[in-house]
Write the structure tokens for this entry.
Amino acid sequence: QVQLVESGGGLVQAGGSLRLSCAASGRTVSTYTMGWFRQAPGKERESVAAISWSGNTYHADSVKGRFTISRDNAKNTVYLQMNSLKPEDTAVYYCAAKTGGKEYGYWGQGTQVTVSS
């Protein structure tokens, strides 16, 4: 089993930055695809970014150029660097992991990000 714990959320003013971390335990996730998702109140969960085991990345259009996903396999950790934050980025951010398949099978508990205008 893989356990994921997010950290780094908080309250920040528009234009500010935060770096989210997702620490994995239970087994190494170096061969897993890791993703960041977010869910704002009253909205569906959406994919924000993903990184494959080989380092290929995906960023949603809404965050492209502002957010960057990265991973440190030695630390079994994935990061989401968020710059130029906007109030519409306010959400609970979740880390997820998958190996093979199309569905993310492991999820963290989420960390709140609030961007004030």
About this structure: The CA atoms of residues 66 and 83 lie 5 Å apart.
